[in-house]
Amino acid sequence: MKTFVYIDHFKGEVQPASWEALGLAKSFGTAIALVFGAGVDDVVKAAVEYGADEVLVADDASLGDYRAETYASTLSALVLRQAQDTASSLNPNLILFPTTARTREMAAMSAVDLNTGVLTDISDLEVNGESFVATRPIYEGKVLEKTVCSGKPVMATIRGRAFPKPNREEGRSGTITKVAAAGEAKSTVEGYSASESAVNLGDASVIVSGGRGVSNNPSLTPPDGMDEKQAEVWRAQQGFALVTDLAQTLGGAVGASRAAVDGGYITYAHQVGQTGKVVAPDLYIACGISGAIQHLVGMRNAKVIVAINKDADAPIFKQARYGVVGDLFQIVPALTQAMKKKLGK
Amino acid sequence: MKIIACIKQVPDSEAKVKADEGVVSWGDAPLVINPFDEYAVEGALQQKEALGGTVTALCIGPESAREALKHALAMGADEAILVSDAALESLDTVGAAKVLAAAIQKIGGADMVVFGRQTLDNGAGLTPAQTARVLGWPMLGLAGSIKVEGGAVTVERVLEEGRQSMKANLPAVLSVVQSIGEPRYPSFMGIRKASKATIPVWSLSDIGATAPTAIVTRTELMNPPAQDTAIEMITGETPADIAEKLADKIIAEKVL
Ligand SMILES: Cc1cc2nc3c(=O)[nH]c(=O)nc-3n(C[C@H](O)[C@H](O)[C@H](O)COP(=O)(O)OP(=O)(O)OC[C@H]3O[C@@H](n4cnc5c(N)ncnc54)[C@H](O)[C@@H]3O)c2cc1C
Ligand SMILES: Nc1ncnc2c1ncn2[C@@H]1O[C@H](COP(=O)(O)O)[C@@H](O)[C@H]1O
């Protein structure tokens, strides 16, 4: 059984679920990593160290900026070449991707080229010979479906943290084969502004999230000269500072509800939920978040959920393992202190 | 500018959806325009306002999907087209993309096709890029803002890693995200206009397409495993007291 695993990266920064996909592929047999980009030696090295049996690298200036068209064409050409070459030992039955904005696009397009389909956001994959049955959420995760793809190769994007991450073996060596870039880009990248803080919610084992409630501390007096909206954002930043302290104490990442993102309290990169990141940490602490369905679908697979909310009727409590009815401005800093003490920090 | 907004009809987000003897049921919850596609209509209308032109709402679905198209008309779309055919019962995203592409060609002369980021029911988020691929047009995905100038469109793509500005020549396919702006409410006049509008229904033969065979199919439907939601409320005299107890509980869970 041969599987291609697409290693998704943004300017060399690999989406960790790529390694989980590699681990899954290895559990079925031969795992062949695909790395596309320009100047991607570090990514290739990491792919080998995470256990790729072989790495196919398209390292080309034309792939320097991700564009769906060129990435999809490079992938399609690679698969077609293997399929035509009967002697090829690399003809894949399955192509796995981590689920990201980029992989959804390139897999989507490549599936059109290859007359196959994409199973997105899968949390389980059963293999019977050459047939694959994937489990994926539909209707915002209210229902799950098992789904199959009759095309070849089957393409599937995996959900982050749904499959174990393989260990990295520093210094491991492996076969690296150069392949050609293909296709013509139909767009140009004009500029890029990074989120000011690097967040990797998908990979975090602890997430502390803030919602609209983080702006609700009437006893804080904002600096003079702020209008109402500025004062609200200023208050929210004080709230997020407390959330961040707790996250750092626990070695975790900071998440947010959409209300907090829309309110301008924090950047979109932090958003958890249906239109943000779907996460599955070991511990999720929701502070001042009501628990709307669109937020819940993003975090309800966390192992342990803690909710801190001053409204005892907030729906988030229906999802939580532990709940505190109280003011987050009091509870969160107290919890940070208690944790520091107990963890010896 | 001739703009097409692709919309789907789905059960309302508040609906209690469940698997019921092998089919999806949502009780008597209403069917509505896919919430992500409201942003697509909003994005399309903003461009029409900025540049002049028309907005056409396009939907593949059963007769009942007229209601979703009426919502787009009430928001301000100029016309709506429903593609409906008994042969389209089980459609995967590649199939939907082929049918949408054929309808877009039949409408003709489009400068821009705007999609939502994903459907609420299937949630694949594949159809926009697949439609772009079938048409051979550029794909600008997850746009938080759109600017058209001199035959080209520039979008700000909202990614986890930050914002990326991308430019392509028209015609182009776009998908939009919430940063585009809250979808406008239908006006009273809009609702009246929509209720009187005739919505043409095109069959597959009308758009010169053959019924696509689904490559991706469902074999089983399940309700998610019931969660053990036995919540334990932590109470105490003071915040410090509560925090102390909560910290012990968290540590005992061995998740750190
Ligand atoms: C199509 C669509 C997609 C969406 N996608 C997402 C998504 O990806 N992610 C997401 O999160 N939402 C999403 N939403 C929005 C979602 O419906 C909710 O509006 C949002 O999650 C609410 O955020 P919130 O809980 O922070 O705010 P609110 O619902 O306003 O809740 C604030 C909570 O804070 C509590 N509170 C206030 N002050 C304090 C205090 N001092 N101490 C403690 N508690 C306090 C209140 O009791 C309240 O429960 C989406 C909506 C739609 C329609
Ligand atoms: N049946 C349909 N009719 C019109 N547009 C659709 C249809 N299905 C999907 N779309 C469009 O494609 C987007 C992504 O759908 P999906 O790939 O199913 O998540 C949606 O937000 C719509 O804009």
Brief write-up:
The complex is a heterodimer of chains A (345) and B (256). Chain A is of the alpha/beta class and 345 residues long. Chain A is built from 8 helices and 18 strands.
Structure characterization notes:
- The complex is a heterodimer of chains A (345) and B (256).
- Chain A is α/β, with parallel strands linked by helices.
- Chain A has 2 domains: 2-178, HUPs (Rossmann fold); 201-343, TPP-binding domain (Rossmann fold, 3-Layer(aba) Sandwich).
- Chain A has 8 helices and 18 strands.
- In chain A, the strands form 4 sheets. Chain A has a 7-stranded parallel sheet, with helices on both faces. In chain A, strands 15-14-16-17-18 form a 5-stranded parallel sheet. In chain A, strands 8-9-10 form a 3-stranded antiparallel sheet, with no helix packed on it.
- Chain A starts with a strand and ends with a helix.
- With 256 residues, chain B is α/β, with parallel strands linked by helices.
- Chain B has 6 helices and 15 strands.
- Chain B has helices at 35-51, 66-75, 93-107, 127-135, 188-196, 239-252, and strands at residues 2-6, 9-11, 18-20, 23-25, 31-33, 54-60, 79-83, 112-115, 139-149, 152-159, 162-169, 172-176, 201-202, 216-222, 232-233.
- In chain B, the strands form 3 sheets. In chain B, strands 11-10-9-12-8-1-6-7-13 form a 9-stranded mixed sheet, with helices on both faces. A two-stranded antiparallel ribbon of chain B has the order 2-5. In chain B, strands 3-4 form a two-stranded antiparallel sheet.
- In chain B, β10 (152-159) and β11 (162-169) form a beta hairpin.
- The radius of gyration of chain B is 22 Å and the shape is globular.
- The relative contact order of chain B is 0.17.
- At the A-B interface, α3, α4, β7, β9 and β10 of A face α3, α4, β9, β10 and β11 of B.
